[in-house]
Write a structure and sequence with these properties.
The complex is a heterodimer of chains A (about 950) and B (about 300).
Chain A: H1 2-29, H2 41-48, H3 57-62, E1 74-82, E2 87-94, E3 97-108, E4 115-121, E5 133-135, E6 139-140, E7 145-146, E8 152-153, E9 158-159, E10 164-167, E11 181-183, E12 186-196, E13 198-207, H4 215-220, E14 231-234, E15 240-241, E16 247-249, E17 269-272, E18 281-288, E19 292-301, E20 310-316, E21 328-330, E22 337-340, E23 351-353, E24 356-364, H5 369-394, H6 406-409, H7 411-435, H8 440-457, H9 462-484, E25 488-496, H10 509-522, E26 541-545, H11 549-567, E27 571-575, H12 580-586, E28 592-597, H13 600-606, H14 619-623, E29 635-636, E30 639-640, E31 643-655, H15 656-661, H16 670-682, E32 687-688, H17 696-704, E33 710-711, E34 716-717, H18 722-736, H19 746-752, E35 757-761, H20 764-771, E36 779-782, E37 787-788, E38 794-795, E39 800-807, H21 814-824, H22 827-841, H23 852-857, H24 862-874, H25 885-901, H26 905-926
Parallel strand pairs in A: 26-27, 26-28, 32-35
Antiparallel strand pairs in A: 1-13, 2-12, 3-10, 3-11, 3-13, 4-5, 4-12, 6-9, 6-15, 7-8, 14-25, 15-18, 16-17, 17-25, 18-24, 19-22, 19-23, 19-25, 20-21, 20-24, 28-39, 29-30, 31-35, 31-36, 31-39, 33-34, 37-38
Helix pairs in contact in A: 2-5, 2-7, 5-7, 5-9, 7-8, 8-9, 11-22, 17-18, 25-26
Chain B: H1 2-10, H2 12-39, E1 42-43, E2 51-52, H3 56-64, H4 66-98, H5 102-117, H6 124-128, H7 136-144, H8 157-185, H9 189-198, H10 203-214, H11 216-231, H12 235-241, H13 253-263, H14 267-293
Antiparallel strand pairs in B: 1-2
Helix pairs in contact in B: 2-14, 4-8, 4-11, 4-13, 5-8, 8-11, 8-12, 11-14, 13-14
Classes of the chains: A alpha+beta (about 950), B mainly alpha (about 300).
């Protein structure tokens, strides 16, 4: 009996457990039905066309479905040069049709960045994407250079003299076929405006883009016999490349990368993160010895973003051989891989090549995911639009206990949500099927879909989850951004006889082991870290640099290639992690120290540690390279102790789209700002004033009030005057009366639209350009708001901050050190240094040179440049005086006391003025300077 | 003299073994302390030679420098709150943990010790205390409707001290705690048995008469660590509230010292503060030793 009972208990327990597992499974995975049919993304695109106020290409084309393509190709040869910022008109005569455009051109510019142009047809920009077409340039590989130990270093590239041909494609890569432009019957005007670089145009052509035949069709005509002979080309010697950012690399990780790393830097691969933007291409010249049918093979590495494949378009002799080559996928793996390009079943493709020279080109493309990203991008901007509409009602941090009556107040938002739910669902299915599984993208999209569904069902939960929703959108935007980056490193390109194998991807265990052992033993003898010749201590100028490795290598190369050969002064450049003060105490300081913060030179000079640079003969010529104000912080007691290298200053960033929506203009004066603030706050938006932790915000208001921080040459502060007290009141009122935020992240809030106006330093431009592509073109830079003067002029002074070069007093080579500083601050050297860094690090690394001429030559768009130049003219620097550190900290204390404790402005300022003055006097006494008693 | 040489010869081996540590200790601890004491009597700006000024630097601090007094008060406040609280807290925690099973104990010991080995991990408090309306504590309070504008925990003088004390306590528990755990493990179990026979009635008596006297060395170590720790706080405040903090609200002696050395380049004054701190700490250590003598008797 008992045994039976036990059995029953046992069985029922098992049954119960099984049931539980089944229930759990159905809860966890039951809702998600796996998609089986690939959704058509075109319907998603057409669903969203025409919804935005800006006409994009898809909207443009949806209205032109019944127009025929152009019949015959038409060429318009004309030798003209379009200067940067100017336009040229080409008149063409056609039947009403759609045509693609091809430009034959050369970029005339002494820098090595891409050119770009805008196309207008009959006086109008046809669609949003036509605002910017990138015009690539061809760069030939130069001579290999090596230092005296055999280390190769980066080769300066020479531009090819040939004309380039460019078909107008989508610069963002979201459309894979060339754009079509609508031309009316009869005469049409095509206007080409140069955004960047002078463009010499030779020919402009209208043509119909023919789709490439498939492999099946092409291979029908292949010969039967085959005596192909395998050729291998090392990738580190490409014939041409379109961007200098595609660099030769030295792979140390694998012994099969040829030539293998043996302790000395020899280039053995090409590409990397610098070869990641749509349109960047590399061409290899291959000499084929035998007519025949070849396989195409690569040894490559794509270990950049976990799980993300990257795509390339492959052209042979400038043509795509068959349609499968429009997008070739390079899979992700942590190690090197070898591949023969083959179809889905794994049969390698054959390429019919005649004997002789051929070029093989690999161009970055977004591949199959282009259409998906196009949909995602569109959905994102729709949802961002919805988000902005919501915060106009609820504010960025809504009160979750309040009923905002979303259904009644924002029916259009719910409409957008409903529409986007469908769009994103089909996008998620599409990605699932294409990538064969869920991934980062589908996870992010599914999360948004879940939210949207919930919002539609229970609109009252929207305020509560608004912040999460906003960060979900940022997440989607980041994902799109990461997908458009397509880095790839290649070791070799191979044309193979089908019987031959590709170069082995990985070496065997023992080969690897012996290689690693060899490197380990070598590491005791060779210093891998130091590239370049090591100069003798005494005769060379020792220069210290406190930035990163990239900057070090670029500057080192610039010195070795330009400065030392010309001046015959050897330079010993050292990368250090600060510590100039300690080094000076220990007596091992360099001759020149670069990129010092603004306060350092005065502090060192007052203690007699620096050379007075104004004593050198050509000082005036050197000083004339900068805005005069930038030298103010380096002037002390009649001498000048630093030469500016970088300069940043505040400008005002404005979201044009949002301001237009709420009916505002970009403010010009503080009165405008006060008016704006009321309207912004009605719409639950904010204004960003420079962080209260710095003195810049206050100084800006003070200087605009025609007053100064110090008087009598820095003997006393000048803040307890009427103007000073007014500036303090104005500053603190912004927080106490207009309740500005004290802490915030400007870039995030500007991007989400919570802070459509903000004052920030101009390098924010670079951050926004790179990290917020979803709002590109929707914002602009303006001068900071100014104070109206009695004569009706607006004083819009902003504060500038610089870094500088200084020469130590103990140098044994003062003349040579000065010559180095002189050379490094010339427009030429600053410009070359700046572009090299931008090439290496992208826009986010754009160098903020203080040299006015070099600044103009960096790749700023002409519109941005105009604002920046204007703002620089009025920008002022804060004087550095002995004891000046007290000003900064006590201005902060005054500010906090007024806003935290509601203290009286005048009383507080007077109290702290005394404290600051006491410290100034104390320090002046210490340095033996004259004081008022 | 002769005796000394004899003694030296006799213990030759010991001195040879002592030599490596002692030379390093002299070079990197004794010598710097002596140099600092010397420099505290000079006016020294690092870049030019020091000049002897006698007791000027000390006199300045005590009679002329309000901020020094403020820093001293702040330091003392922190030492008095953080020191004993974290000391007793760590002891209690160690005692409780000692009663738990091995696995649980190991995990918990690691969790509690982790903050003090993880360097600048306290920077996460910056997120918690952030004055942004999206900072963790602020957004929590805003959501509950307790406040309606974000509190500037790290720049408003009203809240700064509290924030810094909380974070300092969080970071300072670890080392003492670890030594207490080790001490508890080292107590001979047979003593408890003997105690039970001799009439110990409850756990408190066990703790007071057996456990604590048995772990005196660890207690002393913990106390010394806690005192020196409490007097040298400054890093946390500087990292969270900036240097100098608003109106010197969490300015400690160490902050005052770095202000002199790094911002004002007045190294003589900085050394004077270091010397004062050194003297205070030695005094405190002696005091603690005396206090602990009476424990468990």
């Amino acid at each position: 009996m008992t045994i039976q009972k036990r059995k029953i208990v046992k069985i029922s327990a098992i049954v119960l457990a099984l049931a539980l597992v089944v229930v759990l499974f159905s809860i966890l995975f039951g809702e998600d039905e796996m998609p089986t049919k690939l959704p058509d993304l075109n319907t998603a695109v057409s669903q969203m066309t025409g919804t935005s106020s800006v006409v994009d290409y898809d909207t443009y084309m949806s209205a032109k479905t019944d127009v025929a393509d152009i019949k015959a190709r038409q060429d318009y040869s004309q030798n003209v040069t379009v200067k940067e910022g100017e336009s040229k008109t080409f008149t063409v005569d056609v039947n009403e049709s759609l045509a693609s455009l091809e430009l034959t051109y050369k970029i005339l510019a002494d820098n090595n960045t891409d050119g770009s142009c805008e196309i207008k047809i009959n006086g109008e920009r046809p669609f949003r994407e036509a605002a910017e077409f990138v015009l690539k340039r061809n760069w030939l590989s130069g001579e290999n250079k090596a230092d005296d130990r055999g280390n190769e270093y980066t080769i300066p590239l020479n531009e090819s003299n040939d004309y380039m041909k460019a078909v107008f494609y989508d610069a963002s890569g979201l459309h894979l076929t060339p754009f079509k432009f609508y031309l009316k019957e009869g005469k049409n005007e095509i206007i080409v405006t140069s955004n960047k670089g002078d463009i010499e145009i030779k020919n402009i052509a209208l043509f119909k883009y023919e789709s490439v035949p498939s492999y099946k069709e092409v291979s029908k005509n292949y010969p039967k016999t085959n005596n192909a002979k395998t050729v291998t080309i090392e990738a580190e010697r490409p014939q041409v490349r379109t961007n200098a950012s595609i660099t030769e690399l030295c792979d140390r990780s694998s012994v099969t990368t040829i030539p293998a790393f043996k302790g000395i830097q020899k280039w053995n691969s090409l590409g990397g993160t610098g070869w990641n933007r749509v349109g960047q291409s590399v061409s290899f010249k291959i000499n084929v010895e035998q007519d025949g049918l070849y396989n195409l093979g690569f040894r490559y590495k794509n270990n950049f973003v976990s799980g993300l494949s990257t795509y390339r378009k492959i052209l042979i002799d400038g043509k795509i051989p068959f349609s499968e080559m429009e997008t070739v996928k390079f899979n992700y793996d942590t190690d090197w891989q070898s591949v023969k390009l083959s179809d889905e079943k794994g049969n390698p493709y054959l390429y019919h090549l005649k004997k002789g020279e051929h070029t093989i080109t690999l161009e970055v493309t977004l591949g199959q995911q282009a259409s998906a990203l196009n949909v995602a991008q569109k959905a994102l901007s729709r949802l961002n639009e919805a988000y902005r509409k919501i915060i106009m009602v609820t504010g960025a941090t809504p009160d979750k206990y309040r009923d905002y009556q979303i259904e009644k107040n924002l029916p259009e938002v719910l409409e957008i949500f409903k529409e986007q739910t469908e769009v994103l669902e089909s996008l998620s299915d599409w990605l699932y099927l294409q990538n064969g599984g869920k991934g980062e993208g589908t996870a992010k999209i599914d999360e948004i879909v879940r939210k949207l569904k919930e919002f539609n069902k229970y609109p009252e939960t929207l305020p509560q989850y608004l912040a999460t929703f906003s960060s979900n959108l940022t997440g989607l935007s980041d994902w799109i951004q990461s997908c458009t980056s397509q880095p790839l490193t290649i070791d070799c390109v191979q044309l193979l006889n089908p019987k031959d194998e590709t170069r082995e991807a990985k070496a065997g265990f023992f080969k690897n082991l012996s290689h690693s052992a060899e490197l380990f033993i070598r590491s005791f003898a060779d210093d891998y870290g130091v590239i370049g010749s090591i100069n003798k201590e005494n005769e060379s100028v020792e220069v210290w640099l406190t930035l990163g490795r990239d900057q070090y290598q670029i500057l080192k190369e610039l010195i070795d290639n330009e400065f030392t050969p010309e001046s015959n002064i050897p330079v010993n450049l050292k990368l250090v992690a600060g510590g100039i003060l300690q080094a000076t105490v220990a007596g091992i300081e360099p001759d020149v120290n670069l990129f010092n913060p603004e306060g350092t030179p005065m502090n060192f000079a007052a203690r007699g540690a620096l050379l007075d640079l104004s004593k050198f003969d050509n000082y005036n010529e050197v000083a004339s390279r900068f805005a005069p104000q930038t030298l103010v912080p380096y002037t002390y007691n009649g001498g000048v102790y630093g030469i500016p290298l970088t300069q940043v200053y505040d400008v005002m960033f404005v979201r044009d789209d949002i301001l237009a929506e709420i009916g505002l203009k970009a403010p010009e004066t503080w009165d405008d700002i006060y008016n704006c603030l009321t309207i912004l706050q009605q719409n639950n938006m904010e204004f960003a004033f420079p962080d209260s932790g710095t003195v810049n915000g206050f100084a800006m208001l003070l200087f605009q009030n025609q007053s100064n921080l110090y008087k009598d040459n820095g003997k006393r502060v000048d803040i307890n005057t009427e103007a000073g007290i007014e500036a303090f009141s104005k500053w603190t009122q912004l927080y106490s009366e207009y309740s500005l935020l004290l802490s915030y992240n400007f870039v995030n809030r500007f991007r989400s639209g919570d802070m459509p106006i903000g004052i920030a330093d101009y390098s924010t431009f670079n951050t926004l350009e790179v990290s917020a592509p979803e709002i590109s073109g929707l914002w602009s830079m303006h001068l900071v708001p100014g104070t109206m003067q009695q004569d009706g002029k607006i004083r819009n002074i902003a504060m500038s901050t610089t870094t500088s070069a200084m020469i130590m007093k103990t140098t044994s080579l003062p003349e040579q050190s000065w010559e180095f500083v002189d050379w490094f601050t010339t427009a030429d050297a600053q410009y070359k240094y700046g572009t090299a860094i931008e090439n290496k690090q992208g826009i986010s690394g754009r160098y903020s040179t203080a040299n006015v001429e070099a600044f103009g030559r960096l790749s700023w768009s002409s519109q941005a440049l105009e604002t920046l130049n204007k703002q620089r003219e009025t920008a002022m620097s804060i004087e550095q005086v002995p004891g000046g550190y007290f000003l900064n900290r006590h201005i902060n204390n005054i500010f906090r006391k007024i806003i935290n404790e509601d203290a009286d402005v005048r009383e507080t300022v007077n109290e702290y003025t005394k404290t600051i003055n006491d410290e100034l006097t104390k320090k002046r006494k210490e340095f033996g300077l004259e004081v008022d008693e | 003299m002769n005796k000394f040489v004899k003694n030296l010869k006799k213990n030759k081996i010991c001195y040879i073994y002592l030599f490596p540590f002692f030379s390093l200790f002299t070079l990197f601890t004794v010598l710097p302390v002596l140099i600092a004491i010397f420099l505290s009597f000079t006016d020294y700006n690092l870049l030019q030679a020091p000049q002897f000024v006698g007791f000027q630097n000390y006199a300045d601090f005590f009679f002329n420098d309000e901020i020094f007094m403020k820093a001293a008060v702040n330091t003392l406040t922190m030492a008095l709150v953080v020191g004993p609280f974290s000391y007793i807290g760590a002891l209690m925690l160690a005692w409780v943990l000692n009663e738990m099973g091995r696995g649980v104990r190991t995990v918990l010991v690691f969790l509690i010790y982790a903050p003090s080995i993880s360097g600048n991990a306290f920077m996460i408090w910056q997120l918690l205390f952030s004055g942004d309306q999206l900072g963790y504590i602020n957004s929590f309070l805003l959501n509950l409707g307790i406040i309606n504008t974000p509190i500037q925990f790290l720049t408003d003088t009203e809240y700064m001290m509290m924030a810094v004390i909380i974070v300092t306590m969080w970071t300072s528990m670890g080392t003492q705690f670890l030594s207490f755990v080790a001490g508890l493990q080292g107590v001979d179990q047979s003593l408890y048995e003997a105690g039970a026979i001799d009439g110990v009635r409850n756990r408190w008596q066990e703790l007071w008469y057996i456990t604590i006297p048995q772990m005196k060395p660890q207690l002393l170590f913990g106390a010394v660590m806690s005192i020196t720790g409490a007097f040298t706080v400054g890093g946390v405040g500087a990292a969270l509230c900036g240097t100098p903090s608003t109106d010197y609200a969490v300015h400690t002696l160490v902050n005052h010292m770095t202000d002199f050395s790094d911002t004002k380049f007045e190294f003589g004054d900085a050394c004077a503060i270091a010397t004062i701190l050194f003297a205070v700490m030695i005094l405190c250590n002696n005091l603690i030793k005396r206090l602990l003598k009476n424990v468990g008797t």
